[in-house]
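Narrative of activities, Objective 1.

The group set out to show that a structural description can be obtained from nothing but a protein's sequence at a throughput compatible with the screening campaign. Below is one input-output pair from the validation batch, recorded exactly as produced.
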Amino acid sequence: MEDMSACLNSEGLEHLQVTTEREASELLTLLTSAERHKNSRLVLLHIASLSGHHLRRITEICSSLDIATLAIVEETSLRIIDPTLNITDLICSPVKEPEFILRAKRAVANLTNSFDDDVIARDNLFINPTNYEVTVNNKRVNLRFKEYELLLLLASNPGRVYDRATLLSQIWGYDYFGGTRTVDVHIRRLRSKIETDSDNRFIETIWNVGYRFRTMD
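Output recorded for this entry:
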């Protein structure tokens, strides 16, 4: 089977295909950016061409975004496939068209969660406003409600600087009598939960002003 993409296109299946390490790097950048291909519900992975690191990272992120992954693998390589990889399905090469189409359709149809286009993704951080879920490194983060509201407001407006008074009024309300120190305390707690790497900050401090969510590098 020579052209898998053409086959899926003829079936109306939006997808992305990864056949090289370079394409894997480009896909990771796309999946963690605000401009990710929101219509794609399937990623084809040619395992023989990918490193274990790229393969694991792609499958983890796709799982968080409810994007199905269909791996193409040589039958002789089945024994070395890591069983802990979060792959939706796999098919042995050489691929036969009827089976390929069926597996691709089933992989997409069997997604257990409905991915909301409003999900915010930045590096290893994912925020789903539909179910109030926040994950870092594919693990759910337990946030207090005000922490979640702060994160959602900042992340929904990357690059915009919010002074403490504005954050206080928008998150706590105009009738809240607490001082702006409340904002600093909640930001500190929020950072401790979502920023696993001190060199990779999501929330930036603007001295003597307030805070902003980091823009894309």
